[in-house]
Amino acid sequence: MSGSTHKVKIVAKNKKAFHDYEVIDKVEAGVMLCGAEVKSIRAGKINLADSYASCIQGELYINHLHISPYGHAGLYSVLEPTRRRKLLLHKKQIAAYSAEVERKQLSLIPLAVYFKNQYVKIELGLCRGRKKYDKRQKIAEQESKRKIAQVVNMKNR
Fold first, then answer.
1. Rounded CA separation 137/143 (Å)
2. Which domains does the chain have, with CATH numbers?
3. What is the pLDDT of residues 20-63, one digit of tens each?
4. 103 exposure class (CB count in 10 Å sphere: 0-12, 13-18, 19+)
5. Which helix (H) or strand (E) segment is 79 a member of?
């Protein structure tokens, strides 16, 4: 996602994922959507919480990604908000990530949804779940860094 010269407009971030999981690797994937869903995402009506990706018969799908129905869509274009959507990756990438998920018992979690060259892209993270004590330890480290920064700022004044 970063480092490219393409226009990127971030629509949604999964802040909970960074708290609950340790991100090992990231990959950018396209997603198959209908037109009304794209308009709804442009309006910011998307929720990444509790969504995850899974491999089914050599294809990668995202589950529980909530996209609210677009208000001005016709009667026939209204779809289920949390339906399973196909992710677009190369076959080698799908095989590699599904093997990692199976072998190391990791999860594929969406970290962000953004527009890149007018296409909807999802940043997937290969993640390992954090234990409760790991979460506490991370919070303690962040608080200590914050306190050190405050002390340094006070001395610099």
1. 10
2. 8-130 (2.40.280.10)
3. 888 999 999 999 998 788 889 999 999 998 899 999 998 999 99
4. exposed
5. none
